[in-house]
Amino acid sequence: MIEFLNRMTEKFSDENKDYTRFLVISGPRSGSSYLSSLLRSHPDIISYSELFHPRRVVLGPDHKQVDPDTLLTYRINHPVEFINTIYDTAYSKNIAAVGFKLLYRQAGNPKEKPAWDWLIGHNDIRVIHLTRDDLLAQYLSIRQARVRGQYTT
User: Residue 26 forms beta bridges with which residues?
Assistant: First the structure.
């Protein structure tokens, strides 16, 4: 798996495992893509996108592409190893935080339940929980995204 990750980003080395681990969790249309893009814009943060999307592993726009089918198969068959690789890899010494985005509905695959148990068991992972107060606006935004077929800007 580390070979795949090495091809996704240039920010790997054997220097640093002392960084903050985080998880952005939210419902759809709540600002999580915007927050993820802001985090990615910081040179000392690695913020992956939707690593547990049901049909693909969405790394983010700033990562080199790797074989998506291989990544998806690995994640489904080895969910704990997959998530552990994200959080326990040695990154360059300037990296201060590493994390990813998870939408509520993405935690539904029973084969990947061990990953959720792993996350629950690690209280050192900082959780950023986004919610949207205006549920009507959220619903309308979801409908609009479906009509347009565009979920991020």
Answer: 103, 130
